[in-house]
Design goal:
The protein has 163 residues and is mainly α. It has one domain. The chain contains 6 helices and no strands. α2 crosses α3 (72-100), α3 runs parallel beside α5 and α4 packs antiparallel against α5 (131-146). The radius of gyration is 21 Å and the shape is elongated. The model is unreliable at 1-7 and 9-21 (pLDDT under 50).
């Protein structure tokens, strides 16, 4: 996918056999360019979403503390429950991605991250007294999923560029 100049090379652009008499090759090139652009866009969103996994909570922590009647330590653990599992598992996720393929690790990791988010949302919406415990479970599950996402997305982007 990378040209000799070290720039990203979009599939379907130029090269021998890119066009046929019927123009079918041109249409195919447009489709593969769209897929390439969509893939780059998705890869760029992954680290952004993972950063938001913690950053978006910081402004609402005081309101959460008050609404859930939490101690300062419990409030801080909401962030820590995400960060520690992610930090511990990132090297292992990288190893697995190198061994079994980036997509084979990244897709289940994104699903795991989403499941963790759903657990955390369910805790906040449906439970009042036991919400904190389930919120913590959701945050840990999110952290487990996050370990195999942002770093692998960066590696995938690096695979598309040879400079």
């Amino acid at each position: 996918m990378a040209s000799k100049t070290g720039r990203l090379q979009q599939p379907g652009r130029g090269g021998a056999g890119a066009r046929s008499r019927s123009g079918q090759g041109a249409r195919q090139g447009q489709r593969s360019t769209f897929r390439f652009d969509a893939a780059i866009g998705a890869l760029l969103l992954v680290p952004f979403v993972m950063v938001l996994g913690n950053s978006i909570l910081i402004p609402v922590l005081p309101a959460m503390r008050q609404a859930m009647n939490l101690s300062p330590a419990q409030t801080g653990l909401i962030i820590t429950a995400f960060s520690v599992p992610a930090g511990v598992l990132i090297p292992f996720a990288g190893f697995l991605a190198d061994r079994y393929g980036r997509k084979a690790v990244m897709v289940p990791s994104l699903v795991t991250y989403g499941v963790g988010g759903a657990i955390a949302i369910a805790a906040a919406v449906f439970l009042e007294e036991r919400a904190y415990g389930l919120l913590m479970v959701g945050r840990v599950v999110q952290g487990l999923g996050a370990a195999g996402t942002a770093n692998i997305a960066m590696a995938l982007a690096g695979d598309l560029y040879a400079g």
